[in-house]
Design goal:
With 566 residues, the protein is of the alpha+beta class. 49% of the residues lie in helices and 12% in strands. It has helices at residues 18-36, 42-51, 54-59, 64-73, 77-86, 93-98, 102-110, 120-160, 165-169, 174-186, 190-205, 207-214, 220-231, 238-250, 255-269, 271-281, 305-320, 334-347, 371-374, 392-400, 437-440, 444-451, 477-486, 526-532, and strands spanning 286-292, 296-302, 364-370, 382-384, 388-390, 403-409, 415-418, 454-461, 469-470, 503-506, 516-517, 521-524, 538-541, 547-550, 556-559. The strands form 5 sheets. The protein has a 6-stranded mixed β-sheet, sandwiched between helices. β4 and β5 (388-390) form a beta hairpin.
Length: 566
């Protein structure tokens, strides 16, 4: 939290979020120029420029301790101080340095020219700034909603304690009363009002996350992800999980990445509870339909992770084998072809195209599991590619029916290389019985469907494999396999498309002398591959395998080095 206005321009407030200064230093500099008509001192100017360098940004990715300390500073008196700044009639340069969120930030942004009158770079700054204002407003609204709910609860408690039976009979349910009030005040449906109340109670339960939202450091979807994942964990683990979740979010993680990161950490902390919930959840398998406008409808099925992956991959493989253009020359999207395949598989099975000829010369990675988990030595979660995290028991069932290749890692989890020997998994320990259809239960058919083609990677620490390159434009199969093993997903920050479904792109163009080697190739999904080649966009692979993206506005965004569990 901002602690106070600098006495001189040399004293730049060091406890503000680094990312905010790195992205908005020009706005802060313009504020001082405009309001005071002075230049920054050389020392302050040098510090601001240093903050904009890639090396400084990369070196200051917050740790869990950093986040905890920063948020501790952001509670209590500092919040009151910032609120006082927000309520000030005149938001000058000193106050602006402290009020980098909420009404104070809104006042600063409102003083800027209209969107049509600013540069593209400033426009992005404004978009980012207004997003922080919106986050602040959501946190404040959540606090007000939670207080309304608390008061309605107190009213119910007082009514139930009354000796008058008529008062007891008239006691109102606090949830129903609050949601009804919100629905009317916000002009929303009862269901949307319930979501507003859920968000508010989540913020009240996690005050540290609420403080980060109020300061605009995270957004509401991230708070929802944190609250949802923490809610099912042991009470003694929740504060720690919240701290690591905020560290992940402040390092640039999206809401989905934060959710998966917290889920993996929680699964490792208490694998027995996760396994029990997974077993109980099998009873939730089901299907539902919803009517949609224009003679359309939604069909929803809830099934196990292995069933979902097998069904989805089977439908997708068959859909990809169908022409992308219909008889009238119109483009048919892949999703539309998937629906056609699903309908034909159920209603017209004789029309379904046999896709058994699919190319099997390339390995398809469907499961990533640690060797100790595969043999039953620990209960760490594994990743079912295209789905997400699964329990150790499910991973062992899939692994036992699959063919493996070894993935070699360094101590930090970065991939060094991929083995070339295909082998069956080792025999599991006593606490991990061998795979059988009976033990697999509902997943038996799905596992059998995956067993033909699945490549399960055993993670082991090992030596670096030889450097691989070719003089040709197109990489060899060995190079492609290696690159996909190193980079598990599209390397655009926040994108989660598995590398097996991406294009392999030369970071430095082959036509400009860029080599076709593992050091110059990264997977990019088709969307971000096209973005990368658009005017003004560029990327650079750093020695630590992080990827820096530069946008047409000159902003730089860093995708951290990949690990096997990204």
């Amino acid at each position: 939290m901002c602690s106070g206005a600098p006495d001189t321009h040399d004293q730049v407030p060091a406890d503000l979020p680094l990312q905010w200064w790195a992205q908005d230093a020009d706005l802060w500099r313009a504020e001082l120029y405009e309001d005071e008509g002075e230049d920054l001192s050389p020392a302050a100017e040098a510090q601001l420029d240093a903050w904009l360098t890639e090396s400084d940004i990369a070196a200051t990715t917050p740790t869990t301790a950093d986040v905890a300390a920063a948020l501790d500073r952001g509670s209590g008196s500092a919040v009151s101080e910032a609120a006082a700044v927000e309520n000030a009639d005149d938001v000058g340069p000193g106050a602006g340095s402290r009020a980098r969120f909420g009404v104070g930030l809104a006042a600063l942004l409102a003083k800027r020219p209209a969107p049509a009158e600013v540069s593209t770079a400033e426009l992005v700054d404004h978009i980012d700034g207004w997003a922080r204002v919106a986050a602040h407003a959501q946190a404040r609204q959540g606090a007000a909603v939670a207080e309304l709910f608390a008061r309605r609860g107190a009213e119910q408690k007082a009514a139930l304690a009354s000796p008058d039976p008529r008062v007891v009979m008239s006691a109102q349910d606090p949830v129903r009363s609050t949601c009804s009030e919100l629905a009317l005040a916000l002009r929303q449906s009862p269901r949307m009002a319930e979501m507003v109340l859920d968000d508010a109670l989540g913020l009240r339960a996690r005050p540290v996350s609420a403080a980060a939202l109020e300061r605009g450091q995270i957004d509401l979807p991230t708070v929802r992800a944190i609250c949802a994942e923490i809610a099912v964990t042991r009470s003694e683990d929740r504060d720690m999980l919240e701290a690591v979740a905020l560290a992940k979010a402040m390092a640039g993680g999206t809401a989905r990445q934060v959710r998966l990161f917290v889920r993996r950490t929680a699964m490792r902390l208490d694998p027995a509870a996760v396994a029990a919930r997974a077993k109980a959840a099998r009873g939730d398998r089901g299907m539902s339909k919803t009517e949609v406008v224009d003679d359309m409808g939604d069909l929803r099925a809830t099934m196990t992770a292995v069933e979902l992956k097998a069904v989805w991959d089977t439908i997708t493989t068959r859909a990809q084998a169908l022409p992308a253009v219909d008889a009238d020359g119109n483009h048919v999207a892949l999703d539309e072809r998937r629906v056609g395949v699903l309908v034909d598989m159920i209603l017209h099975p004789d029309k379904v195209r046999d896709c058994a000829h699919t190319d099997r010369t390339r390995w398809r990675t469907d499961l990533v599991v640690a060797s100790r988990t595969a043999v039953g030595a620990d209960q760490d979660p594994a990743e079912l590619v295209g789905y997400g995290l699964v329990t150790a028991a499910t991973a062992r069932q899939v692994a036992a029916a699959s063919t493996m290749r070894r993935l070699e890692l360094d101590a930090g989890g970065q991939v060094l290389g991929r083995g070339t020997i295909r082998h069956r998994p080792p025999a599991p320990g006593l606490d991990a019985p061998p795979y059988s259809a009976a033990a697999a239960g509902a997943d038996a058919d799905a596992i059998a469907e995956l067993a033909d083609r699945v490549a399960v990677l055993l993670t082991e620490t090992g030596p670096t494999l030889p450097h691989r390159s070719t003089d040709r434009y197109r990489p060899t199969t060995a190079i492609s396999d290696h690159v996909e093993a190193i980079h598990r997903r599209c390397r655009f920050p926040g994108c989660n498309r598995p590398s097996s479904g991406c294009d392999l792109d030369h970071a430095k163009a082959h036509s400009a002398g860029g080599p076709t080697c593992i050091c110059n190739l990264i997977p990019l999904c088709r969307r971000h591959h096209l973005v990368k080649h658009a005017d003004g966009w560029s990327i650079r692979i750093c020695p630590d395998r992080s990827v820096t993206w530069t946008t047409p506005t000159g902003r730089r965004y860093r995708d951290p080095p990949p690990t096997v569990w990204d």
